[in-house]
Amino acid sequence: MLLLPRFDYEEPKDLHEACKIMAGLKDNGKILAGGTDLLVNMKKGLIFPKCLVSIGKIPGLSEIEPQNGSISIGSNLIVAKLTEFDLIKQRYSILYESAASLGSPLIRNRATIGGNIVTARPAADLPPSLIALGARIKLKNKKGERELKLEDFFKGPGETVIKKDEIMTSIIIDEPPPFSGGNYIKLGHRRALEIAIVAVASFITLDKPDGIIKDAKILLSAVAPTVIHAVSAEGALIGEKPTGKLIEKVASLASQECSPIDDIRGGAQYRCAMVEVLTKRTLTAALKQAKKSR
Amino acid sequence: MKRLINLIINNKPYEIAVATNKTLTQVLRDDLNLLGTKEGCGLGDCGACTVILNGRPVNSCLVLAVQADGCEIETIEGVAPDGKALHPIQQAFVDQGAIQCGFCTPGMILSAKSLLEKNPKPTEEEIREAISGNLCRCTGYQKIVEAIQVASKTMKKR
Q1: Is the separation of the CB atoms in A102 and A125 below 8 Å?
Q2: Complex ipTM tops 0.95
Q3: Domains and CATH numbers, chain A
Q4: Between chains, do A4 and B23 touch, taking CB under 8 Å as contact?
Q5: Region A237-247: what's the mean pLDDT?
């Protein structure tokens, strides 16, 4: 049986108290949300935090709230809820798709949106879709609060710009513009409890139902140290009328932009080839949705 | 250091002192002698430790007992209505031969119960999705899926 090392445990009742505790702990504290990553790493002996600070009893961190044209998602919201709310399913379907492919139903009932971001796994399921939707995050410590774009948050595998005493409190997503659509596809050996071999999230906005592409986001996951934009592929879409031929060209551009590694899940060459396939499929699905949306 | 927590397990209230580094699986098994909950991998991959926590099936090996303070928990011991006659899902597992060594069975039954309470007439695809966090290394999944389909029908008749 895998045992957990000893640690102190704090359960602050509000954010103010939580920030004070984190400030006092300096390097020795870890935020405990769902625990599906943290406790696993502790059992495996990879990390030994001196103190776990549970955010489970802090009110207001587990809600989805609409606020003038955007939604604010509490960092401690469990991933299962992202697959249950009609608002997410209908208006932010790309986020629904990535949430539904995370872990297993049992894991989704514990794992949180904030945890999936803060752990900064290169193959994490939620960040590609959240970045495609232009999500911003709020970080709080004793001194105050800052807001930044999620795409500026990741530095490398497991590394982010969060400071030791900061707590991620919420994720903010603006309402998708009219005539926009998105799609997320994760390729794995099986459909549950799987780390992506490759995953792609595409999101496009048209100027009118059969018009030109106003904005395009293509995010590639598990093929670089962090999730990356396929920059040249995005650029090649903007200002163009979407056609099958254009999508073929863009998909091949995307596959040239990744820098995957060979590992047990797949070879680098295979991953590049799959980036092309998934870019094509996600763009085609995103386009179909954009034409129907308003 | 130990902390005092309150749990409601299978509708019975408990007040227990637990070490902060004890998982819910450990407390159920070691402190409360509820041995129906199994520990397999201890890492959230196998689902043998599944319990229903505030209405949702979870891997109890990845929940600290102190995190469960104030929660309602259902374990396999609480599934049979009066503790004697089997629950229709349990009966279906027996009748369909969906049990071999039995180690995954408590988790499978609790995942199936959560599914059928939310969705009394699931498709085969929905059943396979619902038990996708529960691994079985003996029978394969076919008989388990069939047992859940049979249970769905017998529960509807009641």
Answers
A1: yes
A2: yes
A3: 64-174 (3.30.465.10), 180-292 (3.30.390.50)
A4: yes
A5: 97
